[in-house]
TrEMBL record:
Superkingdom of the organism of origin: Eukaryota
Record-stated family: Belongs to the aldehyde dehydrogenase family.
Keyword line: Oxidoreductase
Species, as recorded: Solanum pennellii
Pfam families: Aldedh
Residues covered by the Aldehyde dehydrogenase domain: 62-524
Name under which the protein is recorded: Aldehyde dehydrogenase family 2 member B7, mitochondrial-like
Amino acid sequence: MAIRLITSRLSHSSSSSLASLFQGRNSRVAATAALRYTTAAQDPIKPSVNVEYTKLFINGQFVDSASGKTFPTLDPRTGEVIAHVAEGDVEDINRAVVAARNAFDEGPWPKMSAYERSKILFRIADLIEKHNDEIATLETWDSGKLYQQVATIEIPMIVRLLRYYAGWADKIHGMTVPADGPYHVQTLHEPIGVVGQIIPWNFPLLMFAWKIGPALACGNTVVLKTAEQTPLSALYVSKLLQEAGLPEGVLNVISGFGPTAGAALSSHMDVDKLAFTGSTDTGKTIMSLAANSNLKPVTLELGGKSPFIVCEDADVDQAVESAHFALFFNQGQCCCAGSRTYVHESIYDEFVEKAKARALKRTVGDPFESSNEQGPQISSEQFEKVLKYIRSGIESGATLETGGDRLGTQGYYIKPTVFSNVKDDMLIATDEIFGPVQSILKFKDHDEVIRRANATKYGLAAGVFTKNIDTANTFMRALRVGTIWINCFDIFDAAIPFGGYKMSGQGREKGEYSLKQYLQVKAVVTSLKNPAWL
């Protein structure tokens, strides 16, 4: 997931995005083109950090799970165990919700001034920035994502986002509303209460920040469940919360599994609101659990099958590089990945050849090696799922231009894969693969590609490449998605809202829009006697 931002690690007058970070590697990549899918080393690089925090974080303390159970978290580079982490279950969710409820009803957090809350959020951001390298190492080790990506882009993005919401904390207020008759009417924007949050494995700490930033800025308390594949970074950051002065019980972090801890959180009668990022199918389950318990409101950021549309007037070389990035970034494990690449028939053959050549230049290997562009998939389950979709593409008649198999014999590495002659009804064009598989489809005219791009249950994002402003304006209004990037892709900012249409979710993350998800609006009407004016 890319972001254009200013960070302390870059010049304060410059702007950086992941797209430019990886495009800057083209010269190094070209040098290794003859080697094709190169791997950095036979033996994985040993991470320079110890795993210290593996317990649940409840009421300001690290504690064992009530059952005493643990589960292994694995290194995607090898499939070997990194550490055993406490396995939270129903009883642990109950303990965390009690802590969060007491912190909200009796504790200082919602009662302290918004300015005091903002100072604590600023301190959390400062501490994450201070411990950048340790956090980035844990994140890479646990998830397989590139170390350079985490250390130079994702963590600065987290810091920026927390500071953004720290700035919002004392700017949340209601309104005075004119009404017919002798009444003074005002609205209060109040914290909603105890918030349950469930985050995914593809951007573990980034999604942690997207969730807790607006929730805490509004004065809520939180019970957050990590993805079982990637618990380590959130548990590490939990210890920084204490150092920053966050009161006990305000933020509780539970590592555990969806059917147990996740279901318990979603159906808990004392949780006032839920926020979830993950698959559409799991989102449906969470909505059902929320509805069948206390009808708690739910924010969902779900799956996608985003179209990347290359018009006849596009700069082909730029479009090839951007389409490559839009799909292969983060091993293809992005909800908004440009996974349906629609190319106008007049430039289709040229685009396919150049997309194939770019994929062949992509360096795959140990994510701790700075020369690599792609690490392993997150798990054996996801690895097998991607390979299954690749086989489906071949069997359904798409042309396999390159890739199509695992890379090496250790870990969950997959060769960058490109299909051409893809049809709309093939599974590789309809399903969210969540892997390094690019599907390139051909179109004749704009009306046709708009219709085909919209013919999906998803509506998260889209990319459009064109030099014509009228064409861009047509697409930006016609495509039924939550975000459209014109002549770019994966550009994020703390202030830009993110979310989907249709089965890609409901509600918005980031920006001012996300604050509304964590507030109640109360109307207060006071009778006036002999008012001087109305």
